Amino acid sequence: MTPHVHRRDLLRGAAALAPLVIAGRAFAAPQAGSRLLVIFLRGAYDATNVIVPTGSDFYRQARPTIALGKPDPADPKAPLPLDAHWSLHPALKDSILPLWQQRQIAFVPFAGTDDMSRSHFETQDTIELGQPVGGHRDYGSGFMARLAGILGRGDKPIAFTDQLPLCFRGGAAPVPNLALANVGKPIDTRQAKLIERMYAQQPALSRSVAQGFEVRDTVYRTLDEEMKAASRGAVSAKGFALSASRIGTLMRAQFNLAFVDVGGWDTHVNQGGATGYLADRIGELGRGLAAFAEAIGAEAWRSTNVVVVSEFGRTFRENGDRGTDHGHGSIYWVLGGGVAGGRLAGDQVALSPTTLNQGRDLPVLTDYRALIGGLVARQFGLGADRLAGLFPGAKPRDLQLI
Amino acid sequence: MALAWSRGAGSIALLAMLSGGALPAQAAPSGAAQRIAWANRLTWGATAADLAASDGPGSDRWLAAQLEAPPADLPPDAAAQVAAMRITREPLAQIVVTQQAMQRDANALVDPEQKKAAREAYQKSMNALADEARSRSILRDLYAPDQLREQMTWFWFNHFNVQAGKRDIRAMVGDYEETIRTHAFGHFRDLLEATLRHPAMLRYLDNDQNAAGRINENYAREIMELHTMGVGSGYTQQDVQELARILTGVGVDLNHDAPRMRPQLQPLYLRAGLFEFNPARHDFGDKHFLGHTIKGSGFGEVEQALDLIAAAPATAHHVSAQIAGYFMGDAPPPALVDRMAQTFQRTHGDIAQVMRTMIRAPEFAASLGKTFKDPIHYAISAVRLTYGDRVILNPQPINNWLNRMGQGLYNHETPDGYDMHAAAWSGPGQMATRFDIAKQIGGGAYGLFRLPGTTADRPAFPQLQNALYFNGLQDALAQPTRAALAEATSPQEWNALFLSSPEFMHR
Prior knowledge:
The complex is a heterodimer. Chain A has helices at residues 57-62, 97-101, 120-129, 143-151, 189-198, 203-230, 239-253, 277-296, 298-301, 368-380, 384-387; strands at 20-22, 25-27, 35-41, 51-52, 80-81, 87-88, 105-112, 157-159, 257-262, 304-310, 330-335, 343-344, 366-367. By secondary structure, chain A is α/β, with parallel strands linked by helices. In chain A, a hairpin with a 5-residue loop joins strand 5 (80-81) and strand 6 (87-88). In chain A, helix 7 runs parallel beside helix 8. Chain B contains 26 helices and 5 strands. Chain B has helices spanning 2-6, 10-20, 32-42, 48-52, 60-68, 76-83, 86-89, 92-108, 112-143, 147-159, 173-182, 188-196, 199-204, 218-227, 237-246, 299-311, 313-328, 334-346, 351-359, 362-366, 375-387, 396-404, 428-443, 467-470, 479-485, 491-500; strands at 250-252, 270-272, 275-277, 287-289, 292-294. In chain B, a hairpin with a 2-residue loop joins strand 4 (287-289) and strand 5 (292-294). The longest helix of chain B has 32 residues, at 112-143.
């Protein structure tokens, strides 16, 4: 058996996605009005119990108390088959399964980094910085900030976080950040004008002050309309679903390069199976993504890509506490209206004790830089010259995700 | 609220401003603005007390007292809050060992639900320990008489950064900060070794896992790169590897008894509290470090290596530049940094002398008011200005403000510490957050005078238009700020505008 099984989606019309040839050079066709949202699941989500290798007996042996069963249409707790090998967690039935059926979501198994520290803190930094592992780290240069710089004018980046994340640090123009969990009423216009006037003679700060108010204002105004609309009988969302819906509303018209993080995935103890802690978390994530797709609207959704990443996967075998420990390879998600989905993308390897990384966790066959680099190259029509600075030392890999 | 607005000496001048936008005719006492400028730089923020004292911040007498006296006591109301804390009542080793036992017992439970509950209780008590340390730190910044020491305590913590969230460091950060505070104006070599011997640092940079044959370079590299010589200062990867070998066996031990080892190694074993040098884990080969041969001998190698590092000209320069940057902002004058580095070398790293060289330099006086405040300077100075020596009852709102501004105490994940460049704190999101916080501080007590467990603040109203303002602060305001303040329609709004002004963003 060859270790790597290359899978290609034969159903996809090859002609529709053939690269454009302009003046003798091949370019990926950029999506007009393109938007990118990166969602970071901090704490290392247990990918193996969410995109489940139900075709593997080894999976069930390795997880005697937390493994999900085989797909079974009669059992509402059974995972939902994606292909002959993989199934989806039942908590994603109403949110993510419809996207899969519409071929708007692809999963990239065996994805991650070459950072073997198994430290949340090291590996999150590794991903956000997007710099070669082992070299000197420049904490003032995150990959999203570099992408914003590459895209240049007309680009509107934002981090939906309470602090500016590492991935958006650096770059020529300051990137705003704003947490959406409780968007308070901004300082009233009159006061904002008074404050702006105080900074009229402060060249170093005046732009920042004005932009800060503008972003606040934009967000509040946009969301205020949404809240009024939502109050007409709709069930109000909570938690990540609320934030994600707001992000959708804001990315529809205002921002096109965004980052948000979701915590609570470090499931060392009692993580549950078809139901329980992880099922609740993943269900909330799924509802959030569905709410995002709905809020951004059908038109914008067609040119939006959402990438879901996490710092590493967890141990393939469950531990002594009905949980899982720090592992290596994860499973990333790519979704959007223009995504060539309904498939598992990238290289795969059959799961067995000998194919696990260090005998304990999923190996990484698709580097996150190759994945994201290849995706944004197509999405934004970036040639190798413009792409070179995004992930220094890493080669983008075109998984033909859009 | 309206009463406070119309009462007091300030109201007449304010009415004059509101009516015509003209400034009050009377000039501030000569030098008052200057005294405030010195206080804003050398303390955590000027208060009305700085106006009264002729020998206040900036004076020779004040400076000598700050640099030479041992750590001072807090005023009684703040001291009582600190005295009640577990981190005050129990020594570090006891806290850490107790916490470890609590975690071990939780992990030993069989029932998953019980285990989960016990683990949550453990996490809660760990968080409480870190929060106590944060509260104590904030109270000291607000009220300690030795303001310069407290500023340097924050600086050195950041220079030798650890993150509370890693492993069991939450139980250790209070003591770590206390250790740094004691050495804040001592010799750099002693401060360096005090951090090296502290379990918080040994945990944070993984040296407790550095042993012969299983080298972990993490701490060795950061000592060279961040704590002492600075990146690109001439040391090599080989030096880092050799220092890592020298540091093998330096670790943390929570057990009561010394580990077992061969009898001939036992005399080389060292233990002080949780700190341990375990010769059985040490690489006894000779090392070649910074051009010197260090004979394998045990912990003496570490002492020799620290002597070499602390005496290196690169260390004098790097540390001087960091101190100058902290006080004087981005790109401090190179000539001044050179003079500080000369003092550092001449005095064998006497930090008080290096401080004196900086503070007495003409460049320092010329830079007053031009350093952009980082979030902690912003928050602390706002509360000091607003409430003076009236001691707050609850530091938690300040903690929350620091978190919102992205500079929470002991929260920085990476060993480089919080960025001290203005650009790190003056982005659009950060500025907008500051204006929100200005509004909260300016608008009322906002929980600062609410005892934990109660729902209402004791009566407290932020009165920023006080003697300090009329007798000095306002002299430093530029015309656009004066014009904006003149349009305030309530004292709360006036407060918020003043705390949002560019002048208040600088120190």
